[in-house]
Write a sequence for this structure.
């Protein structure tokens, strides 16, 4: 007689932890002119794909965020 299979947690198989967290700051408004979120400076496609991106893809985007801030009208950022 074989042993019963170990139960799988209700949440499904565990994923390996990601070392690069989302830059989201919960200010989810997209600037129409630049297409960037006013909180995290990512595009909507980047935001939507973030959970499926590799750490290398995430790191590339993270390295671009400071420069993207300059693409947005400072008045929209409360500056």
């Amino acid at each position: 007689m074989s042993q019963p299979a170990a139960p799988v947690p209700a949440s499904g198989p565990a994923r390996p932890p990601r070392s690069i967290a989302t830059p989201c700051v919960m200010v989810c408004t997209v600037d129409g002119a630049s297409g960037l979120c006013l909180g995290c400076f990512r595009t909507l496609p980047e935001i939507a794909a973030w959970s499926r991106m590799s750490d290398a893809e995430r790191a590339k985007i993270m390295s671009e965020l400071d420069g993207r801030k300059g693409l947005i009208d400072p008045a929209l950022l409360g500056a």
